[in-house]
Every structure is written in structure tokens, then in C-alpha cells.
Amino acid sequence: MQPTNHLDIEAIDSLAEAIKKFNGGLVLVSHDFRLIDQVADQIWICEGGKVTVWKDDIRAYKKMLAKKMGLGGVPGNK
């Protein structure tokens, strides 16, 4: 289940704060770039039957995806 499907921005931010305060390990699987941007120390890309570590932040990954799909000029892709 996607943890942010029914959350508003304030709730997502609160979830991010709780995750950051958590002292244990966590694997987060999400499509919510806002949450990922706030909490991810490492981003793993699962694609083509392989898992690789993304060497940049989630914003750079989002830009790469937009470029790959020919959406480089879409509003919101900063």
C-alpha cells in the first residue's frame, strides 16, 4: 500500500518528520517525490531486472525521467 495516497501536504510533511526521527532502518517504496525528497539518504532504481543506486537526488532522477519520456518542458519538472 502506498502510504501517501490519501494524505494532504501537511500530513506528508508530518510523516516525513516522523521517518527522520526514527532511529532504525527503513526501506521506503513510494511514488511521492515530496516524501522521497525529504527522507531519502539513498535512492535505488529497480529497472530492467536490476537494482542500482542512483548517485544524485530525487529531483535529478525526476528530471532524467522527464527527459527520457520527452517531457523536459512540462511545468513542475524543475
Overall average pLDDT: 87
Shape: globular
End-to-end distance, in Å? 28 Å
- Helix share bin: 25-40%
From the helix content, strand content and strand pairing, which structural class follows? Answer: alpha+beta
Number of H- or I-type helical stretches: 3
Give the strand line-up of the largest sheet. Answer: 1-2
- DSSP summary, beta strand count: 2
Largest pleated sheet = 2 strands, antiparallel
Computed over alpha carbons, the radius of gyration is 14 Å
Low-confidence stretches: none
How many distinct domains? 1
GO molecular function, one term: ATP binding
Protein name: ABC transporter domain-containing protein
InterPro entries: ABCF (IPR050611), P-loop_NTPase (IPR027417)
Keywords: Repeat
Structure description:
- With 78 residues, the protein is of the alpha+beta class.
- It has one domain (9-68).
- Helices cover 40% and strands 13% of the residues.
- A two-stranded antiparallel ribbon has the order 1-2.
- The radius of gyration is 14 Å and the shape is globular.
- The mean pLDDT is 87.
- This is ABC transporter domain-containing protein.
- Keywords: Repeat.
- InterPro entries: ABCF (IPR050611), P-loop_NTPase (IPR027417).
